[in-house]
Amino acid sequence: GGSSEASGTTKAAEPFRIAVIMPSATTDTAFSQSMWSALKTVQADMGGESAVELVYTENMFKVPDAAAAIRDYATQGYNLIVAHGSQYGSSVEEIAPDFPDTAFAWGTDVNTFGLDNVYAYTAAAEQGGYVNGVIAGMMTKSGIIGVTGPIDVGDAHTYISGFSQGVALTNPKATVSKTWTGSFSDVALMAAAAQTHISAGADILTGSSQSVVGSIGAAEKAGAVYWFGTQADQTSLSPKLVVASQVYDWVAMLKEIIAATETGVYGGKTYILTLANGGLKIGFNPDFALPADVKAKADEVIKGITSGSITVAP
Amino acid sequence: MSSAERTSADHIRHMEMVNIVKTFPGVRANDGVSLDVRTGEVHALLGENGAGKSTLMRQLYGMYQPDSGEIRINGEAVNFRSPADAIKAGIGMIHQHFMLVNTMTVAQNVALGRKSTRGLRLDLDVVSAEIRRLSAEYGLHVDPDAYIWQLSVGEQQRVEILKALFMGASLIILDEPTAVLTPKEVDDLFVTLRRMVAEGHSLLFISHKLHEVLAVSDRATVLRDGTTVGTRLTAEVTREELVKLMVGREIKEPEIRAPGEGAESLAITDLRAIGDRGNEVLKGIDLTLRSGEILGLAGVSGNGQRELAECLAGIRTISSGSIMVEETEITGKTLTERINMGLAFIPEERMRDGAIGQFSVLENVFLRDHSDERFSTSIFLKLGEMEKHSTNLVREFSVKTPTLDTPIKNLSGGNIQKLILARELSRNPKILIAAQPTRGVDIGASEYIHKTLVERRDMGTAILLISEDLDEIRTLSDRIAVIFNGQIVGVMNRNEATVEQIGALMAAGTH
Amino acid sequence: MNDLFSLTLVTGLLNTMMVLATPFLFAALGETFSQNSGVVNLGVDGIMLLSAFFAFYAVLITGSLILGILAAVITGVVMGLMMSVVSITLKAEQGVSGIGLQMFGLGMSSLLFKVLVGTVKTVSGFPTLSIPLLSRIPILGPILFQHSILVYIAFLLVPLSWWILERSTWGLVIKAVGQNPAAADSRGINVDRVRYLCVILGAVLAGLAGASLSISSLNLFQDNLTSGQGFIAVALVYFGGWSPVGVMWGALLFSMANSFQLWMQVLGVPVPASLANMLPYILTVVALTLSGSRRKTPAALNKPFIRGEA
Amino acid sequence: MAEKKNTEGLEIGIRVLVPVAGVVAGLIIGALFLIILHARPLEAYGALLRGAVGSRFGITQTLVKATPLLLVGLGISIAFRASCINIGGEGQMIMGALSATWLALALSGLPHFILIPAVLLGSMVAGGFWGFIPGILKAKFHVNEILSTIMLNSIALQLMNFLLQGPLMDPKGIEAGTYLAQSARLSKNAWLTRLMPPTLLHSGLIIALVMAVIVYVLLWRTTIGYRIRAVGLNPAASSYSGINVPVNQAMALTLAGALAGMAGAVEVLGVQHRLLEGLTSGYGFTGIVAALLGWLHPLGLIPASIFFGGLLVGADTMQRAVQVPSALIGAILGLIVLFVSASGIWTQQLIRRIRSRREQL
Ligand SMILES: Nc1ncnc2c1ncn2[C@@H]1O[C@H](COP(=O)(O)OP(=O)(O)OP(=O)(O)O)[C@@H](O)[C@H]1O
Ligand SMILES: Nc1ncnc2c1ncn2[C@@H]1O[C@H](COP(=O)(O)OP(=O)(O)OP(=O)(O)O)[C@@H](O)[C@H]1O
Ligand SMILES: [Mg+2]
Ligand SMILES: [Mg+2]
Question: pTM here?
Fold first, then answer.
């Protein structure tokens, strides 16, 4: 609830109202959660519930339902509607023109449909993947690295693509072998996939973040098998095994969008999270004893990507 | 049957049902029915289809609870909430429709619901031995290891009787137990029943066959439309009087004229087929059927009658031999092609093979003819034509049904059978294969069905009448063939056949 | 490939197969009882989910694995009762009530997870229990005798279930009730009570299936953790022709195929992953097609029993 | 005559009201959960009602949801009538959606009025094929359809995964480096007409209603329907009458697949305008619920699917209004399905009582 708290205060004190529509639960330790916690951070930074009203709709994997939610929120006069799923594109394209005073943000994609009240956003996941790959290449002893994931699309694809390039840079002889389970929720199969990599000699595992929960158990049973994460900081899931995670940080982008809407700009811009603009961060596990030379190499690569001297293909 | 088990139930000296009323939605099945049974008595229950006999007995067996009225055992009112209660009180029931698990063996069926001698472990070997002993004692021959689905209807009936014997009940209800038995089997059963009565059992006996009732019972109660019409001492009553009580009029079996010499319309030569058990059940059948005659096929059930009917219908593949209809070999033809050639079938199990219970009366009329061009274009049904046709049939064959839309399962057995007969005859078949056409059907309806079969014979239809009812065979058939162990062991003209002769052939296959 | 590697492959393949098969075995054996008594319970997946959650949650707060198992069993009993009341006493269409139960289990487990736990956490579940001596047998040892206790229990349930169904008086009664309830009823057997017990037993085993995921093989909970495994378990009952041994072959085949397709991917066999993912499903259907198994469905399956109505 | 009409009205009333009472019972238990989660039940259920029928958007959204439910449910009804338990709606829908996307992209040059029928036909063929497989497996190899349809659901899903990662992946996504699991957007002439812009209501609803009438006619006015029903009610009597049981069951499953395939196409052409992961999720199962709530009758299915669609739409609105986790909605819906299925016995008893009273008159 909380739509009536601000009543009675002056216009200037009315909260900024944000609604977000997400394809999975706010607790998915992945895509949806990354946006939800960013929004929570924004809310806290801007002065809490009295300054920012925040509502959500989760598990909207059906597009028509999401479309209904988007329209409903727009009708209720929310200032910013975040459609956090690439599948919502056509709904945003259709609904946004009916609500010219509402800002829409949708991702992950780069297309604003030429509408001036639509922002698009995406993450250059290949960049963090590259950094993770560079570290992994230096740390593997067996020369075998396992990748697990649900299906080979979206930022999972670009992350792995960057990761493989990174490994190739520091350890050209290492093999990166990939398994895809074909399901976003089948944790048991994901665990079996990780186990299979380990049996085949892998001493480092990574994958798009849904797979981490499946892989941890297998990795913990095996002992000295390390994990690289993406999308969110996964250190807390296994402080022993996680080396580093690529973290999506939507906070800066969201703040920028909010600031823009207050000057009357409701869209027309595409944001791509990169290491350079601070949208992507590499979260190192503080408790993990990363060898100094490896850390140095990682920092060097981050600097290279930031400065543009290293480019990574998605 | 251990004697310990038999004495464990309190002995029923006197059972009374007083003023029983039982209503189903729309039907008052029992309307103040009373009867009583004493130790050592056989009490018969008579009435037309739907008179309320089974309903009354089901209340005694705890399957239904009466709306009002009382059941007393040895003077004390009892309240059976389930068959378990009735069984405990010493009541056993042989149901009109078999209560057997088809996928289990005879021994498993008998063991069901009975304490094992080995605790949780099954003791089927003990049960089998017991079955063999009882089989020998009562002449009820069944293989304890055979699966029920492999048994003929008659054999299944024997298993039902065995089950009741096993339970050691002191009052046993037999709901049409003889409908599927041969005269010899009926005689054997009666011997068994008398022995049980002598041992102090009491029996409630339902049958549509009056000579059986007269032969075995001490008293008879007649029901009509749910009410008691009267109770009589069997020794003091005549068959005619009982018929009048039941039906309200007299019954005349049709008179049969000698047949003309018809042309041969069906010729079966050296027909062989494998049964469900994988053994050869038809071992070279040779049989011819002429138009305008009724050929009765007598035999103890389980000797290949069912399989023969299925081979003729084309739903069982034959291993060798030939079936000629007039000049055409039909062994390779489908059922539909055979029907189109003028064959018609009345299957033995009418509710399983002959009708679709939830379909309306109208829909059941068109099971075979729904794609006939009279009743459908190639795709759409001609509902108007269908309604006209079935109205005519229902009227012509006096099928008693509230409406054409009534689900057929709500009709009485006799009326369902009449409708099936109507359906099959409506196409003016050249050949009619009728298996057990009057089994379980009351006297009035039987008379009607018999009359209709004879009429058709006179019109030139060739009729193969498969029946275990020797009276039926002997009244209707122009010629009688006897099947034994998958072979025809004798064919004779009606006037040269005696009951003893047929009986001997049926039992042993020898002259 | 050298010998050592192919040995690793075989061991890994079969070991993973055993682990993957465990939840299927529990759930499908349970459903075997339920269906043999005449009740199709399509809600297995929902029962697995809610039990998986409660088992996980019990271990998370108490640290006691026994309480975890107890939580799963109680959840199974309650969900089994729900299914029984609706489908047996109230004679509801079993397909619909099962789907209702599945929706409820899925929703409720996610809700409780969100409210009570909030984010993915791990617990320490059942440890690997190497059977002394046996586990040291070359090749076979690591495949068969280095698992958590629930894996052993699942496989021991196969002969036990077989014995109950085929050799005990209970089995005779259960199958009679599933084949011809009217016949069982006329022998004084309480049809509804037998069905209640079978459905509840089935649900308890489904509960253990859930627990085997959340506190034995994965040691965590997540939304929709089972990912439809309950439905596969139902399918395996048909595969196994309502016999515990048949169900075991089905579970092993399905899990083996999954284990195998993962190895194919790891070894870089050039087949698109999605097509490899299809393998277990295709293989199960093909195997049943080719095996020509003709076990008959329990005749009263999916039919509520009403005395006096044939 | 008038008397009969009255009781018939009463019967319909019972068929509607008793399940509604089941829904209410489910909502009451749901209210307890809401209270525990510190949400106000009345506010929540008010939002549910408002969301489903309280506005033009609500009503149209309900109808948009009802459309695939109706189509899938029609197919399920045909299969169930032949006593084939078709759990394969999901997979059949996916196949329909795949073929619709592929055809619509390949034939995008054709004019609207040729393109749409062609695509719909293609999707029926694809979905029908996915129903034919369990049909033929059942007919020829006695493979139980519950097993095969469950397996085929997963196979179809993986096939869609495969196509979305490769052949059907939006080239724009590859170009932009996003590699999203979605197809290219369909050209506008492949979209189903919007009936009430700006609402999402599209002509798929009309297609589904027409199909309901066609299925009604098929089941009760044609020889095919007669045989399908006969086979479902009594296979033994059917084969003793020359009706080929396996062939008719295979036919029923094929028809079921074709209708579910059409539902997939209608979702693509009417709502999504492209192929996406998650397009079908749940309709194959909720279609079963709708079919049985509609008494497996095409005309009963129309209100049943609208009712169920409304419930789904309203539940989403409720989630937004009181900000409870969406999982709660799933749990409440599950309870409602349980209660409604449990209420069937009362419906039957009441109707039987009325009928016998009528007969006694
Ligand atoms: N389960 C039931 N539901 C509704 N009506 C029933 C039911 N069982 C019996 N009836 C009705 O009760 C009446 C009596 O049926 P019952 O079975 O007792 O007849 P019956 O005398 O045994 O007939 P038959 O000689 O054919 O065996 C029938 O007319 C029927 O309409
Ligand atoms: N569920 C039911 N609803 C309505 N009437 C029923 C029902 N079950 C049985 N009956 C009626 O009960 C009567 C007797 O039924 P029963 O089952 O004893 O068959 P029957 O007429 O004796 O047939 P058969 O000749 O095969 O013995 C019939 O009139 C039938 O219509
Ligand atoms: Mg009777
Ligand atoms: Mg009768």
Answer: 0.90
